[in-house]
Design a protein that fits this description.
Largest sheet of chain A: none
Order of helices and strands of chain B: HHHHHHH
Number of helices of chain A: 3
Number of helices of chain B: 7
Distance between the termini of chain B: 62 Å
Helix content of chain B: over 70%
Shape of chain B: globular
Strand content of chain A: under 5%
Shape of chain A: elongated
Radius of gyration of chain A: 17 Å
Structural class of chain A: mainly alpha
Oligomer: heterodimer
Number of strands of chain A: 0
Largest interface: A-B, 72 and 85 residues
Strand content of chain B: under 5%
Largest sheet of chain B: none
C-alpha cells in the first residue's frame, strides 16, 4: 500500500516548488511553466484527497483542471508572444507600463 | 497492484516528478526547462495511474505532457534566443523563494491534516470508479460545467487569434 499521506504531501511539495520557481525565474515563459507546476500540484490534490471515500468527483475535477490549463496555456502564450513582438523582451520585470 | 511494488513505483515516480521540477528551476535554458517539465508531468501521469485513475493518467500524459508542453516548446522556439535572457539569480531571491515555498508546503500540510478537512469530504464510499463511471458522471452530474468548458475553449481560441492578429502598428 502507498502510505495515505504520500499523495497529499507530494501535491503540497509540487505546489511549493512551483511557487518557488515562479519567484526564482525572471522570464515570462519560465514563470508560466511554474504556474503549470502549481496546477499539477492542485490536480494531484484533487485526485488523492477524496480517495479514502472512493469518490470519482476528484477525477472529473482533474479533467476540468487539465482542460482549463490547455485554454489558459493558449491565451497566455499568445499574450506572451504579443508582448515579445511589441516590447522586444521576455523579462517580466521589463513590462511595467501598468505600474503607477 | 500487490505488495511492495506500488509504494516502490510511487516513490521512484515522485522523485522523478520533484527532480524534474528542480531541474527546471536550475536550468538556464527555457527549452531545457520545458523538456524537464515534460519528464516531470509524464511521471506525474504514472502517479495518477498508481492512484487508481487510469483515464486521468492517460489524459495527463497525452494532453499535458504531450500537447500543452509542445505548445510551450513551439513558442520558445518562435522567440529569438537573444531576447530570452538568462535569468539573473541573486542568492537572496533563491533563499526568499525557498522560504516562501517551504512555508506554503507547511501550510497546505497543516490544512490537509486538520480534522475539519477530513469531515468536509462526502462519505459516499462506492465501487472503484472506472472510465465508464467517469463518463456517466461527466454527462449527468457535471453536464453544465462540461458544456461551459467547451465555451471556454472557444473563447480561448478566439482570444489567442485576436491577440496574435497581424495588424499595422499604430
Amino acid at each position: 500500500m502507498i502510505p495515505p499521506w504520500a499523495g497529499p504531501l507530494l501535491s503540497a511539495l509540487l505546489f511549493g516548488l512551483g511557487v518557488a520557481a515562479f519567484f526564482v525565474k525572471r522570464d515570462l515563459i519560465s514563470q508560466f511553466l511554474a504556474v503549470e507546476v502549481m496546477l499539477a500540484g492542485g490536480s494531484l490534490a484533487f485526485l488523492t484527497l477524496p480517495r479514502p471515500v472512493g469518490s470519482a468527483d476528484g477525477q472529473i475535477m482533474v479533467v476540468f483542471v487539465i482542460t482549463v490549463a490547455a485554454a489558459e496555456a493558449a491565451v497566455g502564450l499568445a499574450a506572451i508572444l504579443h508582448a515579445v513582438r511589441r516590447r522586444k523582451t521576455v523579462r517580466g520585470a521589463d513590462l511595467k507600463s501598468l505600474r503607477g | 497492484m500487490a505488495g511492495f511494488l506500488a509504494p516502490l513505483l510511487f516513490f521512484v515516480l515522485a522523485a522523478v516528478v520533484l527532480g524534474g521540477v528542480a531541474a527546471m528551476i536550475l536550468s538556464r535554458d527555457q527549452a531545457h526547462g520545458a523538456l524537464f517539465l515534460v519528464l516531470s508531468f509524464a511521471a506525474l501521469g504514472g502517479v495518477f495511474g498508481l492512484f487508481d485513475a487510469p483515464f486521468v493518467a492517460a489524459v495527463q500524459v497525452i494532453v499535458y505532457a504531450g500537447a500543452i508542453m509542445v505548445l510551450f516548446l513551439f513558442v520558445i522556439m518562435t522567440i529569438d534566443p537573444r531576447e530570452g535572457v538568462a535569468p539573473e539569480k541573486a542568492p537572496r531571491v533563491f533563499a526568499l523563494a525557498g522560504v516562501l515555498g517551504a512555508a506554503l508546503v507547511a501550510l497546505i500540510v497543516l490544512a490537509i491534516r486538520s480534522p475539519r478537512a477530513a469531515s468536509a469530504l462526502p462519505a459516499a464510499a462506492g465501487p472503484r470508479p472506472d472510465a465508464a463511471a467517469l463518463g456517466e458522471l461527466l454527462v449527468r452530474k457535471y453536464l453544465y460545467p462540461f458544456e461551459i468548458t467547451s465555451l471556454l475553449i472557444v473563447g480561448a481560441l478566439a482570444g489567442a487569434l485576436v491577440l496574435l492578429r497581424k495588424d499595422p502598428e499604430p
